[in-house]
Design goal:
Elements lengths: L2 E10 L7 E11 L4 E5 L6 H7 L8 E6 L2 E3 L9 H6 E4 L12 H11 L4 H14 L16 H13 L5 E5 L7 H18 L2 E5 L3 H7 L2 E6 L2 E6 L1 H4 L3 H6 L6 H11 L11 H12 L8
Parallel strand pairs: 3-8, 3-9, 6-7, 7-8
Antiparallel strand pairs: 1-2, 1-4, 4-5, 9-10
Helix pairs in contact: 3-4, 3-5, 4-5
Bound molecules: adenosine-5'-triphosphate.
Length: 290
């Protein structure tokens, strides 16, 4: 499902002395099935933008077209349910929204609320729990007895149980350990690759952008200031630094090596690309490193 923002502005607490700009004149297309990353420093408008993608917020000015639904300031909250099922939003620290007595009930809540029978809802819940790697032995436990990482997975399963076409993720790995982070990022990549689910990921992890995203949107002060492939966005380190954004670690390391005279042919964005370049430099004839 394609999403098109056309001159979207959003003002928080409009008409009060506390009014503040969340978004300023943002026009962008999120293509159907794409893996898009959104980066930008704190307060740049990333979360505000995300909440427009499933009409949780409606633009103060401009329009948002989500599939064939046009959302404007005047759109009523009625009949937005089908859209919210297709566009699944995983909030920051999603585990804070768990509330049911058991893991199974929590994950089945969404489908049931959207009209699925008890049996259907449970089938969808079990499938989603399998996808996120939560074992059957936990289904009847309280979600609050699980570890933080497991709780996060259960919350994500609750969104996946709705079988969304597009998954919107607001810093989904924040606060997890490296293994938990890698596993979740692997899950999203698999959902994208094997099931064609579109992903919109807000992250401060430039490695995740380099490893997974097809396109990157850069936000600052509520505006979209750049968009392109990771290679395009990471091509200008000075510009990134001015936006208080960094390079992926592999690129930082490669630049340090270049500064010391190691003749790397290009600045690699991922560890894999860096390793390949180093092998080439060390073994230009293509021999295997011994
Ligand atoms: N509920 C709110 N009421 C008033 N202003 C808000 C509210 N939420 C966000 N803002 C303001 O809107 C602007 C954009 O905030 P937003 O949360 O979208 O940024 P962000 O890029 O997601 O930040 P972070 O990386 O910290 O999550 C900021 O200036 C913020 O202070």
């Amino acid at each position: 499902m394609e999403i098109v923002l056309d001159h979207v502005s959003y003002t928080y607490q409009a008409g009060t002395p506390f009014a503040g700009d969340g978004l300023r004149d943002v026009s962008v297309t999120i293509p159907d099935g794409a893996y898009t990353a959104i980066i930008g420093q704190t307060g740049s408008g990333k979360s505000t933008l995300l909440q427009h993608l499933n009409a949780l917020l409606k633009p103060t000015a401009g329009t948002v077209k989500i599939g064939d639904r046009l959302i404007t300031a005047k759109t009523s909250n009625k009949n937005l349910k089908p859209l919210r099922a297709k566009v699944g939003l995983v909030f920051q620290f999603a585990e804070n929204q768990l509330f049911e007595e058991t893991v199974e009930k929590d994950v089945a809540f969404g489908p049931k609320n959207f009209g699925a029978t008890e049996e259907q809802a449970l089938t969808q819940a079990h499938h989603a729990l399998q996808l996120v790697g939560i074992d059957e032995q936990y289904y009847q436990q309280s979600p609050f007895d699980l570890s933080g990482g497991q709780m996060r997975r259960v919350a994500i399963a609750g969104v996946l149980a709705m079988e969304p076409e597009l998954l919107i993720l607001d810093e989904p790995t924040a606060g997890l350990d490296p293994k938990g982070r890698a596993e979740l990022m692997g899950l999203f990549a698999t959902l994208h690759r094997e099931q064609g689910i579109g992903i919109v990921l807000v992250t401060h992890q430039m490695e995740d952008v380099a490893n997974f995203a097809e396109r990157v949107l850069v936000m600052a002060h509520g505006q979209l200031i750049k968009q392109g492939t990771p290679a395009e966005v990471f091509a200008d380190p000075a510009w990134l630094a001015a936006q208080h954004l960094g390079l992926p670690r592999a690129a930082q390391f490669a630049r340090q090596l270049q500064a010391k005279g190691v003749p790397l042919p290009a600045v690699p964005l991922t560890e894999k690309a860096l390793a390949q370049e180093l092998i080439q430099v060390l073994h230009p004839e293509g021999g295997r490193p011994s």
